[in-house]
C-alpha cells in the first residue's frame, strides 16, 4: 500500500510541476497569434508578429542577446573545464569546492548590483587607485557598465555560470570513475592536464550537457542582471519583451506574447546550434585526442584560463558582497574616497520595518518551496529505488524543462492560470511558481548522494520487516542528513534569487528581497540598495551555514557522518 | 474659480454619486450621500493604493498617510508598490472585459498623463469625484493650471491632484560655477566640457520629458504642442530637435553611446561625479539629497530662463473599486494642509503642494512657513516660470522617433 504511494510519486511530481509550465506555454502561444479573450480578441491573426518584427529595437536586441548568451556560455564552459582539468591532480580543487556553495548562493541580482559598483568608472576599484595611481581627479569617461555591447553583462554571467558548471562537473566526476582512468592515462605518460582533457573531458561533458544547455538558455533570456548591468537603448531581447508586457497599450500584450514565443524559438535554435557545434568539435578534435602528444602549451593555457576565471569569479563575488555591506553602512561616500567619509546605521534604521516584512515573505516562500521540492524529490528517488532502475533520459529532460525554457516564455502565460484559480498575487501562487525552478536544483543536489547510498543497508532493514517508509525515515534519511539539508539550502537559495517568477506570479502584490533589490538597484540611493541586496545575500548564506553546521553537531560522535 | 460652501459640496456629492451609481452600481451598497455618511461607511474599510514604489522617501510618506487614515478614520491602507502604473490599467481592462464591475482589487491609483487619458477613455475610472472632496476648494487651480488640465486634457473631476513636478536642473557650485540657463547654452557648455552631461534614455518618462522640453525650446511654433502630434507635420516640426540632439550626443557622457536607463541612475552619475549637471522632475530632489548627505552642501538648483515643463500627479479611483468610500476619504486627506505640508518638506519628500497658500487658515499656513528651506532648492519665483505639458500624443511620438534614431 505504502509502496504504491511511492509509485505514484513521479507522476504526481511531474503533474504538479509540468502542468503550470504546459498551461503557461499555451497561455503565451494563444495571445501571440492574436487570441486574447480578456481583451476582446477572439480571432487568430499574425498582427502581433508584425508588431514585433516592426519594433525598431528588435534587430539590435536580438544581436545583443545572442552575443551575450553564446559568449558567456562558451567562456563559462572554458573556465569550468579549464579549472577542473588544471587542478584535478592538486589539492586546490577541494578547496575551491568548499567555496563554491557560498558563492553560488549569492543571488544573481545582488551580485550584479555589487559588481556594477566595483567595476564602474566611479566604482570601488577606480576609487581605490585614484587619484594617486591614475591621476584621475574625476571619474574617467569610460564605457564599462551598461555598455551597448553588453560586455559587463557577459562578464557577470560568465563568472556566475562558471561556478555553477564547476559544481556540476565535480558532481559528474563521481559518476565516470575518474581516478582509475586518470591513473591509466598518467601511467602511459600523459601530463596531468592532458590526461584529464583526453580521458575525462568527453565523458564529463556528456554528463553536464543538460546543465550547459540550461546555462545557455538562462543567459539568452536573462532579465534581472540585464536590467542592472546591460545596456538600455536597446536592451537585450528578454528585457525588451518585459517592457512590452508591462506596457498599457493593449496591443502590447499580444506583442509581448509573440515576443515571448520568439524568445522560445531563439533558445531552441541556440540549443540546436550548440548541439551541432558539439558534434563538429568532437569530429575535429578526434585527431588531436589520438595524436599521442603527452603534453603541450594547450595544457598550460587551459589551466591558466580556468585558474584566472575562477579566481576572478570568487574574488569579485566576495568583493561585491563586501561592497554592498560597506555601502549599507555609509553616510556619505563620494568620489574619490576609497572608503566612506562618514558611517551610519541610518539606512538600516530607515529600511528596517519594510525589510522585516520583505524578509519574512522571502523566507516563507523559499522555505515552503524548498520543503515541498525536497519531499517530492525524496519520494521520486525512493520510487526509483523501488523500481530498481533510474528514470529514462526523457524524464530528466522534463525535470529540466523549466530551466531550459526561457522564463518569460511561459511565465507570461502562467499568470492566466493563477488568475483563473484566483491565486494571483498570493504567496501560494508565488511558492508554486518558485517550485518549478527550485525542484530541478534540489533533484540535482540530492539524486547522486541518494543513489550512492549502500543498498545493503535498506535491504537489511526491509528483510527485518520494516516497511519502505520506515526504512526511508529511520535508516536512509538519517544517513543522508547532510546532503538532504544541503539540498534544502540550495533550494532555499534558488528561491531567494528568483526575480521574474516572483514578478509574474506575484502580480505586483508580493514583494520579496529579489524584487525589491532589482527595483532599488536603479534607484537613487545606493545605501538602501546595499541594505536590501546585502540582506538578500545574507539569508541563503545563513541557511547554508546551518545546513553545514547542523549535521556536524548532530553527528559529532559518529565518525562516518562527519566529512 | 468658484468656492463652494459645505452645503454646495454636499449637493455636488449627492449628484455626483447618483451619477456614479447609475445602472452598473445596482448590486452594490450605495455610497452615502453626505460626507459624514461617507466617513462612517469608510470606517473599517481596507483600501489598496497602487502607487509607484521605487523611492523610499515616497514609500515612507505613503506609510505615514496610512497611519493617519488608521488613527483618524479607522481605514486600513495597503500600499501596492508598483513599478509601472500601466500594469494596474491592464488588470482593470481585463476586469472590465470579464464583467468584474465590483470587488476590484485596487481602490486608488497614482496616475497622470497618457495613463489617465487611456483609462478615462476606456471607462476604467470612477467619477467625477474630485470637486466633492471637502478640501477641494483649497486647490490652486488658477496659479497651478496643471491641477485640472492633465497633459492638455481637462480632468473633469475624474482624478484629484496631490503634487506637482517641474523640471529642475541642479549642479555643484564648486565644480560648475555658472551652469547653462538655456538649452542652446547647454550645447555650448557641452562643447567646452564634453562628457559631463546626459539624460535618461526614452522610454523612461523623464527622458521623454527632456525631449519635450528641448522640442518646446527649439521648435519654431511651440503652440503646436497643444494639439495632437498627428495633426502637426511631425518630421518637419521636430527637425530642429533631432539636429540639436545629433550635435549634442557626441558631447554627452560616454559620447552618447550609452544613456542611464532612468532618472535615479542619472542622479547617481551626478552623485559619483561622473557628470556635472543633472535635472530632476521634483524641484526638491537635490535639497533632499543634500539633507541625506548624498550631495555636497554646495549643490544648487534652478529652472531654465525660458521656463520648464510642469505637471501634476493625481489619484484616481477605479470603476470597480471595492472600497470607494475609503478611497474618497483618502483622496481628501491627501489634499489636507497637514498632509500637503508634510509632503512639501524636503527632508521628508519635498513634493510641492497643489494648494493655494493664501486660502489657508493661519494655523495651516504656518505649517508651510515652518518648512526648512535648504540652499539646494530653486530660488523663490523660479517655479513660476512653468510650461504646460504638451498634448499626451507627443509622448509616444517622441519616444518612438527617438528609439528609431538612437536605440538600434
Describe it for me?
The complex is a heterodimer of chains A (563) and B (408). Chain A is mostly helical and 563 residues long. Chain A has helices at residues 2-32, 47-54, 58-87, 92-105, 108-119, 124-129, 151-173, 178-187, 192-207, 209-220, 224-229, 237-245, 250-284, 286-289, 297-328, 346-387, 393-404, 407-420, 427-452, 455-463, 468-479, 481-497, 500-506, 513-521, 526-554; strands spanning 330-332, 342-343. A two-stranded antiparallel ribbon of chain A has the order 1-2. In chain A, helix 1 (2-32) crosses helix 19 (427-452). Chain A is globular. Chain A starts with a helix and ends in a 9-residue tail after the last helix. Chain B has two domains: 6-164 and 312-372, Periplasmic binding protein-like II (D-Maltodextrin-Binding Protein, domain 2, 3-Layer(aba) Sandwich); 168-302 and 388-406, 3-Layer(aba) Sandwich (D-Maltodextrin-Binding Protein, domain 2). Chain B has 408 residues and is α/β, with parallel strands linked by helices. In chain B, strands 1, 2, 3, 6, 10 and 11 form a six-stranded mixed β-sheet that branches. The longest helix of chain B has 18 residues, at 56-73. Chain B has 14 helices and eleven strands. In chain B, a hairpin with a 2-residue loop joins strand 4 and strand 5 (153-154). The N and C termini of chain B lie far apart (49 Å). In chain B, helix 2 crosses helix 11. Classes of the chains: A mainly alpha (563), B alpha/beta (408). The interface between A and B is large, with 50 and 60 residues.
